[in-house]
Design a protein that fits this description.
The complex is a heterodimer.
Chain A: E1 4-7, E2 10-14, E3 19-25, E4 30-38, E5 45-51, E6 56-59, E7 62-67, E8 72-77, E9 86-96, E10 99-104, E11 108-113
Chain B: E1 4-7, E2 10-13, E3 19-25, E4 31-37, E5 44-51, E6 54-57, E7 64-70, E8 73-78, E9 87-94, E10 104-105, E11 109-113
Classes of the chains: A mainly beta, B mainly beta.
Chain lengths: ~110, ~110
C-alpha cells in the first residue's frame, strides 16, 4: 500500500533552536518527494523538491535529505524563527501510466515559542 | 498562490443543501485538482481535470461532482451537503501537466455543514 508517514505529529521548540522532521514512505514507483509548509488558514507552499538522484536540497534555513534506499526523508530547520510555526507536509509522487500521482502525509505541526 | 483564487473562502450551510465552490486560475494551466483536508488525514484528492470538460475521480469523490467549462474555472459541487463534508477544500494546479513535479495550491475554502 502506498503510504506516507510523518513524525512527530507535533513539535514545540524554542526560538533559535534547530529541529528535524521525519517522513517515511512506501510509495512506488518513486518519482519525487516534496516538503510543503502550510501556515494556518493558507494553502501549502513548496519548500523543496527532490528526485531519486538527489539526497540533499536546501532552501535558506530549510534542508531536506532523501535516502531512497531506506525510503526516508527529513526536513531540518536551522535557527528556528517564530514564523516557522506551521504545518509541514511531506508529499511523495509516484509515476503512473496516467501521470504522476501524489501521496500526502498528515503533516507535522511545528510551534516555535519565544 | 500561483494565480489561484478560491471562492467563497468561508461558507456555512445546512445539511441537504447544494453547494458550489469555485477555483479560478489566471495562467491557463491544463491540470487542476480539488482536495479536502481534515484533521488526522493528509490532503485527499476529490476530483481532477486535465482539460476543458475532461475530469476524473479521485479517492474521495462520492458526494461530489465537478465541472470545467472554461480553462480558468474548475467548479466543485456538493449536490446535497452532509456534515461529513465539513472540511477545508483546496484547489491546486500542476503547471507542467502529468509530468509536472509540483503542485501549487490555492488559499482554501472552509466549509461548515450544520
Amino acid at each position: 500500500k502506498n503510504q506516507v508517514e510523518q513524525s512527530p505529529q507535533s513539535l514545540i521548540i524554542l526560538e533559535g533552536k534547530n529541529c528535524t522532521l521525519q517522513c517515511n514512505y512506501t510509495v512506488s514507483p518513486f518519482s519525487n518527494l516534496r516538503w510543503y509548509k502550510q501556515d494556518t488558514g493558507r494553502g501549502p507552499v513548496s519548500l523543496t523538491i527532490m528526485t531519486f538522484s538527489e539526497n540533499t536540497k536546501s532552501n535558506g534555513r530549510y534542508t531536506a535529505t532523501l535516502d531512497a534506499d531506506t525510503k526516508q526523508s527529513s526536513l531540518h530547520i536551522t535557527a528556528s524563527q517564530l514564523s516557522d510555526s506551521a504545518s509541514y507536509i511531506c508529499v511523495v509522487s509516484a509515476t503512473r501510466n496516467t501521470g504522476n500521482q501524489f501521496y500526502f502525509g498528515t503533516g507535522t505541526s511545528l510551534t516555535v515559542i519565544p | 498562490d500561483a494565480g489561484i483564487t478560491q471562492s467563497p473562502r468561508h461558507k456555512v450551510t445546512e445539511t441537504g443543501t447544494p453547494v458550489t465552490l469555485r477555483c479560478h486560475q489566471t495562467e491557463n494551466h491544463r491540470y487542476m485538482y480539488w482536495y479536502r483536508q481534515d484533521p488526522g488525514h493528509g490532503l485527499r484528492l476529490i476530483h481532477y481535470s486535465y482539460g476543458v470538460k475532461d475530469t476524473d475521480k479521485g479517492e474521495v469523490s462520492d458526494g461530489y461532482s465537478v465541472s470545467r467549462s472554461k480553462t480558468e474555472d474548475f467548479l466543485l459541487t456538493l449536490e446535497s451537503a452532509t456534515s461529513s463534508q465539513t472540511s477545508v477544500y483546496f484547489c491546486a494546479i500542476n503547471p507542467a501537466g502529468t509530468s509536472g513535479r509540483e503542485q501549487f495550491f490555492g488559499p482554501g475554502t472552509r466549509l461548515t455543514v450544520l
